[in-house]
Design brief:
Elements: E1 2-3, H1 19-23, E2 39-45, E3 51-57, H2 59-62, E4 67-72, E5 91-93, E6 105-106, E7 112-118, H3 121-128, E8 132-137, E9 161-169, H4 172-177, E10 181-192, E11 201-207, E12 212-217, H5 223-233, E13 240-243, H6 259-271, E14 275-278, H7 281-287, E15 291-302, E16 308-320, H8 329-336, E17 347-355, H9 369-387, H10 391-396, E18 407-408, E19 414-415, H11 420-431, H12 433-445, E20 449-458, E21 466-473, E22 479-483, H13 492-504, E23 511-514, H14 532-559, E24 566-569, E25 572-575, E26 578-584, H15 585-592, E27 607-613, E28 621-630, E29 637-647, H16 654-673, E30 705-709, H17 726-743, H18 757-767, H19 771-774
Parallel strand pairs: 1-24, 2-14, 12-13, 16-17, 22-23, 29-30
Antiparallel strand pairs: 2-7, 3-6, 3-8, 4-7, 5-9, 9-17, 10-15, 11-12, 11-14, 15-16, 18-19, 20-28, 21-22, 21-27, 24-25, 25-26, 28-29
Length: about 775
């Protein structure tokens, strides 16, 4: 069979096919699931940051109306095992998993200590408030830079070190010894809350007749929760079914199964009734794992011409009280990306992740990439100012060139493809960089604080490098796709349908995409790390190609032609040179289920299962640029212009890709200007509601001009790289560089996130005492 079809839908801006159901209120989230005899779980959380638990008195709670049972940590002994942290290549990771319920000691405010199961949610919460816990307070560790000199929180983590990663390549010492200039800076990146619209939750139900545990879970995929539940409950995974219904956002925070879900599943089997647990917003802010949280010292060595010869970095990651499965992955990603888009020949990085009395950290949109981009782009910006070279010119002379790919970095990554200079030039053109530099000079003459910031990035995508997909074409010619990637708002139904429609030449309404159910998709990986199109889409394409091969053989048999004489064009098989002698895919599919119409020995049906495995990560990249103005009287920042140039390889749907960039950029704006999880010195969480934790609101988010370049990846058949993280990676860096460029005439060299009006005003007052009063 020869294919002559041309791509019709991949690369086109198709509106989301799934939207009508959501707009009509027909979506089904975890809290919409109601089962007969369902009970409700409420969790009692530690009010102490660090303490010995002297006594847990549950008598009053157990006697409450409609209470079914009350459990504490000792009740779980021998029944539940904590889920261990994942191993990370090249890193030492302490075996300090998060317990399901604390027993003799609590280590952060919000840690689960006890739980109540009752007939109603109100009854469970009322009873939970009656549990009396006596604590013997212990000193709390809140400053990660002091953690290694404090008493150890765990016997398995001496000096409170939970993670250690060290890597060095090239003549770092020689480069610094001979450097014309060394530029150094310390950075603090605060913790952030993912804050999805839908908090975490689950419904667990056990059928003793089939010995099957079914868990509906607000998660990013069914496969990781399935594996983690299997391990925690010591239960074969074929006796657990995980279903992910509609999900109201995740942003990385729903990748690991919450300990509360493990508890709900255990209770469902123990009491023989379905159990629902859905957290409220306070629980989500206090106990859902947080993102970011990093202190760093970065220095680069430059020669007289402004070429970067080496980089050194010391990173201290605030990992919190325990390790979730993927906690350690995030800071290692930061460490490995610290040379970014630049051809830096030598680098040495030391990463230490420490224990503190805070909720553990985990992946949050970007998951290590925003930290790396910020650290590097800020120090490159500082170098440009100190050397006296335009920041764009300094970047130009240090970029990895397009003819150097695949490019091996000194920290161990191999970039698959790229054209970093093209992305930089496109961003400067979109911003009108040279004109804004002229306008900036005029504005400074008027005393106005106008700043221009540029930030480049390269990120690792395609984590967990395999995925599966199955395609079945019905006798009517409809395609049913079952795929391991699970949507949490990305528009997978649309993008995967575009791939199917192109491959099979059928209409969109003849495609059904099924995801998120471990009984339907028995083996898969999931949605995280911008991997869905790159790996999931490639697995789908692999299955579709198998479908077409078998369909071509059936068509040849029906047309009484040789296989090489049959041509596939736009949904029809025909004999080469005789387009009138043809059969449609629907006709082939109908024959596929009739033994008498098949070639001898061919199995019935038109089905295929595809597994695609990347040989290594792919590396999207791009450049963001911003123009801002700072009001010296208030510290308010006005964003005049923000542009984004992203190269994610092949873009299946530009409309949805732009939506991903805009949404991620809004979160990046929040990181740069508003958001910060704050703990007091005693370990008490101070940002417990949205009145305390400042999420960006629609009027605050700047307008973004986004465009895409396409440098195809050679590592997958689509040439795709992924776009889900991009806006969150480079937006904070571009805005930080712009704000600090605006403040440069006042001698302000650096400020840490968030760049709030009060912090900027304080910095201006410190740099120019009495400025506001004089004004």
């Amino acid at each position: 069979m020869v294919t002559e079809a041309t791509t019709r839908w991949v690369g086109r801006a198709v509106r989301r096919l799934e939207d009508p159901r959501f707009l009509r209120g027909q979506a089904r989230y975890v809290d919409d699931i109601v089962l007969p005899q369902m009970a409700y779980l409420a969790v009692v959380r530690s009010a102490a940051a660090h303490a010995q638990v002297r006594r847990v008195d549950v008598r009053a709670a157990a006697a409450g109306p409609a209470v079914l049972t009350v459990v504490v940590g000792t009740d779980l002994a021998g029944s539940i095992s904590p889920v261990p942290p994942n191993a990370v290549e090249g890193a030492q990771v302490a075996p300090v998993p998060h317990p399901v319920l604390a027993q003799d000691r609590v280590r952060y405010v919000g840690e689960p200590v006890a739980a109540v199961l009752a007939e109603t949610r109100a009854a469970a919460e009322d009873a939970a408030s009656l549990i009396d816990i006596e604590y013997d307070p212990l000193p709390a560790i809140t400053d990660p830079l002091q953690a290694r000199s404090a008493a150890a929180l765990h016997g398995a983590a001496p000096q409170n070190v939970l993670l250690r990663w060290v890597r060095s390549s090239g003549d770092v010492q020689g480069a610094f010894a001979s450097a014309s200039r060394i530029v150094a800076q310390r950075f603090h990146i605060p913790r952030l809350a993912a804050a999805p619209i839908e908090p975490r939750g689950a419904v667990a139900s056990y059928d003793p007749g089939t010995d099957r545990l079914t868990v509906w879970c607000s998660a990013q995929d069914p496969h990781r929760p399935l594996a983690q539940l299997s391990r925690a409950l010591s239960r074969p995974d074929d006796r657990i079914r995980v279903i992910v219904p509609d999900v109201g956002g995740a942003f990385g925070s729903k990748g690991a199964v919450p300990v509360e879900v493990i508890l709900a599943a255990w209770l469902a089997m123990r009491v023989g009734r379905p159990v629902k647990w859905v957290e409220d917003r306070r629980d989500n802010l206090a106990a859902s794992y947080q993102g970011r949280g990093l202190d760093a010292e970065i220095e680069i060595a430059l020669d007289a011409g402004g070429t970067i010869r080496a980089l050194r970095a010391r990173l201290t990651a605030d990992l919190g009280a325990y390790l979730f499965p993927s906690t350690a992955v995030v800071p290692v990603t930061t460490a490995m990306l610290l040379t970014g888009t630049y051809a830096i020949p030598a680098a040495a990085v030391e990463l230490v992740g420490v224990a503190t009395n805070k909720v553990p950290t985990g992946p949050y949109r970007g998951a290590g990439r925003p930290e790396a981009a910020y650290l590097l782009e800020r120090v490159v910006e500082l170098a440009a100012h100190e050397v006296g070279i335009d920041p764009v010119a300094l970047r130009r002379r240090n970029l990895v060139s397009a003819d150097q790919f695949p490019y091996r970095t000194p920290l161990g990554f191999t970039y698959d493809s790229g054209n970093y200079a093209r992305a930089l030039e496109r961003a400067c053109t979109l911003l009108d960089y040279d004109r804004w530099r002229r306008d900036q000079a005029a504005a400074r003459q008027e005393g106005r604080l106008v700043g221009i910031g540029v930030a480049m990035y390269v990120e690792r995508a395609g984590s967990a490098v395999w995925e599966s997909a199955a395609v079945s074409v019905t006798p009517a010619g409809h395609a049913i796709v079952r795929i391991g990637s699970t949507p949490t708002g990305q528009g997978h139904v649309t993008t995967f349908s575009q791939i199917v429609v192109d491959a099979l030449g059928i209409e969109f309404d003849a495609v059904t995409i099924e995801q998120g159910d471990s009984a339907i998709v028995p083996r898969g990986v999931g949605t995280f790390g911008s991997r869905s199109i790159t790996i999931g889409g490639s697995a789908l394409l692999t299955a579709l190609e198998q479908i077409k091969v078998k369909a071509g053989l059936i068509a040849a048999h029906l047309l009484e032609a040789g296989g090489q004489d049959v041509v596939w064009t736009e949904g029809q098989f025909h004999v080469r040179g005789a387009p009138q002698r043809g059969v449609t895919l629907a006709e082939v599919a109908a024959a596929a289920y009739q033994p008498s119409r098949l070639p001898r020995g061919m199995a019935l049906g038109l089905e295929a299962h595809g597994v695609f495995q990347l040989p290594g990560p792919v590396f999207p990249f791009g450049t963001y640029a911003a123009v801002v103005e700072v009001d010296p009287l208030t510290g308010e920042v006005t964003v005049h212009k923000l542009v984004a140039v992203d190269d994610a390889g092949r873009i299946v749907n530009p409309l949805l890709a732009e939506g991903q960039v805009i949404g991620a950029a809004a979160q990046g704006f929040g990181q740069a200007c508003l958001e910060e999880v704050v703990y007091g010195e005693d370990g008490q969480l101070l940002t417990t509601t949205f009145a305390d934790y400042a999420l960006a609101r629609a009027p605050q988010v700047p307008t973004l001009t986004a465009t895409f370049l396409e440098t195809l990846s050679p590592l997958n058949p689509l040439g795709a790289k992924g776009i889900g993280e991009a806006g969150s990676i480079a937006t904070p860096s571009a805005l930080a560089n712009a704000v600090l460029d605006a403040l440069a005439p006042l001698g302000i060299r650096h400020m840490d996130f968030p760049l709030t009006p009060r912090r900027i005003w304080d910095a201006i007052e410190t740099a120019t005492p009495g400025r506001v009063a004089r004004a």
